[in-house]
Design brief:
Blueprint (H helix, E strand, L loop, with lengths): L1 H15 L3 H21 L2 H13 L12 H37 L10 H26 L5 H23 L3 H30 L3 H27 L7 E2 L2 E2 L12 H7 L10 H11 L2 H32 L5
Antiparallel strand pairs: 1-2
Helix pairs in contact: 1-2, 1-3, 2-3, 4-5, 4-6, 4-11, 5-11, 6-7, 6-11, 7-8, 7-11, 8-11, 9-10
Length: 323
């Protein structure tokens, strides 16, 4: 029976992930359960039983394992729904900002100039709330390891980002405009999340957070800078008879372009100039806010999954082996 052979192969693979002194007893228990299911003709349950053992981590005690299906569904739901939720966060922040400005504009006209900063603060606040929910889900989700966790986080984010840009832009040139930034940000975010997971699973949680936040900020800044450099010429602006001859941006202010795109400000520095700020904000549009909305959730999930792995490994270490 092909189903029985496949299930037996999965059980052998599962046994290899356990310490040698436990493999014999566990293999006998699993084979007995497999035999009972095969006698009943329950092929689907037999495959699900073997697959759940094959993908579960060896650090999890057999008696305490939650059902693989429930954990896998929770993990898949979190990883697939969180990126669209980030887009909802950006939209909700924009609606809240417009509501606040419209209500208080007559009494506080300065709010009109603070709209980008308000949008940034609201997006960051809602993103932190999503990050807390993602962390709780990661602790209870399926264990996959730092590499697969990083890929599981980034792939849905990438699909969501491409889909959002496709919906917002009408021409191929508009999509090509954001391609270099995404090609830098998505692989870079994968590497950052893998590094965060490795540090967290080793118990260096504080270092994982610091490395994750700093590297993610540098990566987002690099993505924005690359988009601007690819589409707007460099060098100081050429003015003849008071008229600018071309749209240019001096590269000296490149490290500030992420902050500029999020706040519409140069933070009091001479560069970028007001005209350069307009060019940057008009070009990058959604991308900086997408980075801001997705990064907290991604880091929180990576740290939560890694810390859960370490906690279960510690439980196995202190548990006495039955003779």
């Amino acid at each position: 029976m092909v189903t029985r052979r496949l299930a037996a192969y999965l059980l052998r693979a599962a046994a290899r992930s356990w310490p040698a002194e436990l493999r014999g007893e566990l293999s006998r228990e699993w084979d007995a359960e497999l035999h009972v299911l095969a006698e009943r003709g329950e092929r689907w349950r037999m495959l699900r039983f073997a697959a759940s053992l094959a993908v579960s981590r060896a650090s999890e005690p057999v008696a305490d394992r939650p059902r693989f299906g429930a954990r896998a569904c929770r993990t898949a739901a979190t990883l697939l729904l969180a990126p669209p939720t980030c887009l909802v966060i950006i939209l909700a922040s924009g609606l809240l900002m417009n509501l606040a400005v419209n209500q208080a504009f007559a009494r506080a006209q300065w709010l009109a100039d603070a709209q980008p900063s308000m949008l940034t603060v609201l997006t960051a606040g809602l993103a932190m709330l999503l990050a807390r929910l993602a962390y709780a889900s990661a602790v209870r989700g399926a264990r996959t390891g730092p590499v697969r966790t990083a890929l599981g986080i980034v792939l849905p984010i990438g699909l969501t980002a491409v889909g959002a840009e496709y919906a917002l832009n009408t021409t191929t040139d508009d999509l090509v405009r954001v391609a270099p930034a995404l090609l830098v940000w998505l692989p870079g975010l994968t590497l950052v999340l893998h590094l965060v997971g490795v540090l967290a699973v080793r118990g260096r949680t504080r270092a994982a957070w610091w490395v994750g936040v700093l590297c993610a900020l540098a990566l987002a800044d690099l993505a924005v800078a690359l988009m601007v450099i690819n589409h707007i010429p460099g060098g100081p602006e050429t003015v003849i008879d008071g008229v600018a001859q071309a749209d240019t941006i001096d590269r000296i202010s490149a490290p500030l372009w992420l902050v500029t795109s999020l706040t519409d400000s140069s933070l009091g520095l001479p560069r970028p100039t007001p005209s350069e700020i307009f060019l940057i904000s008009d070009l990058v549009e959604l991308q900086p806010f997408l980075y801001l909305a997705c990064t907290p959730y991604a880091l929180a999930y990576a740290v939560g999954a890694a810390r859960a792995d370490r906690s279960q490994a510690d439980q196995l270490t202190i548990r006495p082996v039955r003779s």
